[in-house]
Design brief:
Elements lengths: L7 E4 L16 E5 L6 E2 L6 E2 L8 E4 L2 H10 L4 E3 L27
Parallel strand pairs: 1-6
Antiparallel strand pairs: 1-2, 2-5, 3-4
Length: 106
């Protein structure tokens, strides 16, 4: 890598489409932004680059741990705060409520 250090992002990984609750959504990740564009390998046709930092992701328990690691190692960073998760409580009795707005689904 050249003398220029790459910017790192500190963020919470989003939930997968298969998750409905808050499980495995805790913890913070430090990942480096791409340092150079990917290019096609002429022999195999695979996309790649000489930037190995883009392959590194570090996981931390708290945001403060991730920030402390970045500052201790002189890594410039930016923190992306997670969007609040809104979970709408559903009540079984609402399926039979008079005057409900949704169509009957079952």
């Amino acid at each position: 890598m050249s003398g220029r250090t790459q910017l790192a992002r500190i963020f919470v990984l989003p939930r997968s489409a298969m998750q409905s609750g808050r499980g495995r959504s805790q913890g913070w990740t430090l990942a480096f932004e791409p340092g150079e564009r990917q290019r096609l390998d002429p022999l195999m046709g695979w996309a790649g680059s000489g930037d190995t930092n883009s392959q590194v992701t570090l996981n931390f328990e708290t945001k403060e741990d991730a920030i402390a690691y970045a500052e201790a190692n002189g890594i410039p960073y930016e923190v992306e705060e997670p969007k609040p998760v809104r979970i709408k409580a559903k009540v079984y009795a609402d399926n039979f409520r008079y005057g409900r707005a949704e169509n009957w689904t079952h």
